[in-house]
Amino acid sequence: MYLTYGRFNSMHVISLMACLVLFVLLNSVRYIKSHYFYAVAYSCVLFASVLATSFSSDSLDMAGGINTALVPILLMGVTLIALISNWKSTYFYGLVAVPLVWFLFSYSMSNPAGWDTAGVDYGSLFFQRAFQMTLALVLATALAAYLSKRVFEQLDGLEENACQAREAEIITARYLANMSHEIRTPLNGIIGMSGLLVQSDLSPTQTKYACVVRDCSEGLLTIINDVLDLSKIDAGKLSLYPETFDIRHLVKNLAELNSVNARKTGLQLKVKIDDNIPQFLVGDKGRLRQVIQNLVNNAIKFTETGGIYIFLRGEEMGPGRFALRVYIRDTGIGIASADIPRVFERFEQDGGASNIGGTGLGLSICKELVGEMGGQIKADSRVGKGTVFAFRVTLPIAAELEEDLTAVIKSRSAA
Q1: Quick check: 117 pLDDT over 60?
Q2: SS3 string of 17-69?
Q3: What's the pLDDT band for 391 if we cut at 50, 70, 90?
């Protein structure tokens, strides 16, 4: 405006003050949640700005009263009020704006400073312009109020549907959790008894059948545990229980248990742990083990030849904290690049190989668990070459145990 008019006047000050007030209102959204407050505040700022400009003492030698350039601003205010608040506030804005327009046009026509008044009927001119503006305001107010009412009715309906959906989701999650607990109790009995049955004096055929019962029961238990975990995640009830644990022992023990399944299909399972990995960390040992177990199970399931390799790497992240990075690499069928973003979604099979079995929940649970631990998980793969799943979590180092372990190693070396 300064470049347009060549000087800075009172109307420029009014515009800057209005912008400042609007900026303060926008930043107060986080503190004040009432839409009525913002509707009233915006209306007051708009009306006050129009009045201040109309009665400005420095009006570039123009007549006092409403400026034609302010008319669209008053009309735009109707739409903004309809969006900010509701149809009632929109009608109220229109009821205030119409008398204001008549007053300002009346003042403008009665104060024609600097005009050539010869042969001009200002009464007719005043009435014509005021009537046009009133008609525009009435139409804009009616249309904006109608649209506002319809939009907010739709939003209320959507909010109600969302609340019902959330309630149904919570009920479903509770039902699944209760059912999972009820089913797991007898299923654990079946697994235990079938295990004892396999070790008893049976014929080869009977042993085979007992092994099938045990394996199917263990598979069903895995699915039930996955469903239970997902129901906890959805209900926001998943909790972590940090404890001091031996990360090296955890991974080696896990690899030893899974090597039996790997050898059944002719695969090798190897572990490599970097020397800088602390012996003891603080975290949820059970959930960390669950993530690695799921990834190893996936690797075995989708690998026909070659092997599975577990790598532990990482680096210290300041005093007493360690960024642990776990890699599980396989030489399996691989995943197409286009499918990698979907492998962590629920009910999606690794690599799209739905004929191999499973529910497609394992990787989704891994992603949720790693996220709960404040980490990230990702995958890299090439079709026919294998896949690497990697996740990173930052955990505290159990400093006292590390110092004790270092002292024991030094004493043994000295001896």
Answers
A1: no
A2: HHHHHHHHHHHCCCCCCCHHHHHHHHHHHHHHHHHHHHCCCCCCCCCCCCCHH
A3: very high
d(CA 69, CA 61): 16
What does the chain come to in residues? 415
Long-range contacts (CB closer than 8 Å, 24 or more residues apart) made by 87-94: 87/145, 87/146, 87/148, 87/149, 87/152, 89/35, 89/36, 89/39, 89/40, 90/141, 90/144, 90/145, 90/148, 91/141, 91/145, 93/39, 93/43, 93/141, 94/137, 94/138, 94/140, 94/141, 94/145
Q: Letter for the amino acid at 31? A: Y
Q: Quick one: pLDDT band at residue 135, thresholds 50, 70, 90? A: confident
Please list the alpha-helical segments (H only) found in 282-348: 285-301
Q: Annotate 145-187 with DSSP letters as a single string.
A: HHHHHHHHHHHHHHHHHHHHHHHHHHHHHHHHHHHHHHHHHHH
Beta bridge partners of 397: 281
DSSP H helices in 200-265: 204-234, 247-264
Higher pLDDT, 45 or 379: 379
Angle 56-61-67 from CA coordinates, rounded to 5°:
55
Nearby residues of 391 by Cβ (< 8 Å), 6 or more positions away: 291, 325, 326, 366, 370, 375, 376, 377, 378
Distance CA 110, CA 133 (A): 18
Q: Which pLDDT value is given to residue 61?
A: 44
Record the pTM: 0.55
